[in-house]
Automatic annotation (TrEMBL):
This is ABC-2 type transport system ATP-binding protein. Its main location: membrane. It is found in: Cell membrane. Belongs to the ABC transporter superfamily. Drug exporter-1 (DrugE1) (TC 3.A.1.105) family. PROSITE patterns: ABC_TRANSPORTER_1 (PS00211), ABC_TRANSPORTER_2 (PS50893). GO terms for molecular function: ATP binding; ATP hydrolysis activity. Keywords: ATP-binding, Nucleotide-binding. PANTHER family: LINEARMYCIN RESISTANCE ATP-BINDING PROTEIN LNRL. NCBIfam families: drrA. SMART domains: AAA. It comes from Methanolobus vulcani. GO terms for cellular component: plasma membrane. Residues 4-235 form the ABC transporter domain.
Length: 327
């Protein structure tokens, strides 16, 4: 079932069209990723959906509510974690959440319970009365997610959830995001430049480019769309005249005793292919696999140098965090 439907969304800044007639939907209970190079229109799209930016045209509905016409009602269902650090370093974790609880008009009698639940859920209870400027980057990110949870949102939006974090803090943040989705069935929408993050978290992704959606699908089908996995086999005899059943894949090259097979899923195909050759008295001496990655998908659809953009953004984000934390 659709949680959010976006139809013909367009956002112009003066003469410039940042988001150009975009239509897609987000399913209930999925983790949906918006990917794309810098300036593709991801944040602008996210801001329009979360009522933080008014569309120039188009419609957005969430659980049947018109987001553009009834932003207050829509906001009650959403939690939003922005890209830049938003927590106040000179307040404690608890105090930061209290501000959010007040902003979201959480009933006075409910506030303490909701704040403590959110802090506990994000693994921050034991540091809740420490000043946030003493938190690590990963803790700060988890606090910001906790802030968004005070609202008990149906949909959680995260703009680049793990940017600037070290690999182990990233994995921790991912673990909490997955738990929210799996334990509460919370719908999660993220924007990211991190292909590993998208691969790890997302059920479906949309790749944006120049304000348009270049492609949208499940990770599995997107990887399949660019050609699937390639299995390379070395045989103990000539590979020139061998064949395999169609359901195991397609032979795309043979060279003396080396065979190249294209298949949807190498992990499940390899044992069957080996059994097939063994059954025909052909010995397989080695197997290597070249799996299609989300990077390959991104490069095909976004046609952009991901590496350089992502490192530039990391530098910007770390600099922002330092300024914000006053170190
Ligand atoms: N308030 C604004 N005024 C003018 N132009 C804007 C404004 N906000 C965004 N833009 C432009 O709209 C385009 C899309 O920006 P947006 O931030 O949505 O891209 P993005 O895909 O989120 O990029 P990034 O990955 O760098 O965050 C960019 O060219 C940006 O410069």
């Amino acid at each position: 079932m659709n949680t959010i439907s976006i139809n013909g969304l367009t956002k112009k800044f003066g003469d410039f069209t940042a988001v150009d007639d975009v239509s897609f939907h987000i399913n209930r209970g999925e983790i949906f990723g918006l990917l794309g190079p810098n300036g593709a229109g991801k944040t602008t799209t996210l801001k329009a959906i979360t009522t933080l930016g008014k569309p120039s045209s188009g419609s957005i509905t969430a659980f049947g509510i018109d987001v553009v016409r009834s932003p207050k009602q829509a906001r009650k269902m959403f939690g939003y974690v922005p890209q830049a650090v938003s927590a106040d370093g000179d307040l404690t974790g608890y105090e930061n959440l209290l501000i959010f609880a007040k902003l979201f008009y959480v009933n006075k009698n409910e506030r303490d319970k909701r704040i403590n639940n959110a802090l506990e859920y994000m693994g921050l209870s034991d540091r809740s009365h420490d000043l946030v400027k003493h938190y690590s980057g990963g803790m700060m990110r988890r606090l910001e997610i906790a802030q968004a949870l005070v609202n008990r949102p149906k949909v959680l939006f995260l703009d680049e959830p793990s940017i600037g974090l070290d690999p182990s803090s990233k994995r921790q943040v991912w673990k909490y995001i997955k738990r929210l989705n799996e334990e509460f069935g919370m719908t999660v929408v993220i924007t990211t430049h991190d292909m590993l993050e998208a691969d790890e978290l997302c059920h479906r992704i949309a790749i944006m480019n120049s304000g348009k959606i270049a492609v949208i699908d499940t990770l599995f089908l997107l990887k399949k769309s660019i050609g699937g996995d390639i299995i390379s086999l070395s045989l103990m005899e000539s590979a020139l005249n061998v064949s395999i059943p169609d359901d195991l894949g397609m032979i795309i090259g043979n060279d003396d005793n080396r065979l190249l097979i294209s298949t949807d899923n190498a992990e499940t195909a390899i044992p069957k292919i080996i059994r097939h050759f063994e059954g025909n008295g052909i010995v397989v001496s080695s197997v290597t696999v070249n799996k299609q990655t989300l990077d390959d998908v991104f490069m095909k659809y976004a046609k952009s140098s991901l590496q350089s953009q992502s490192s530039m953004k990391d530098i910007r984000s770390v600099r922002r965090s330092f300024v914000r934390r006053g170190r």
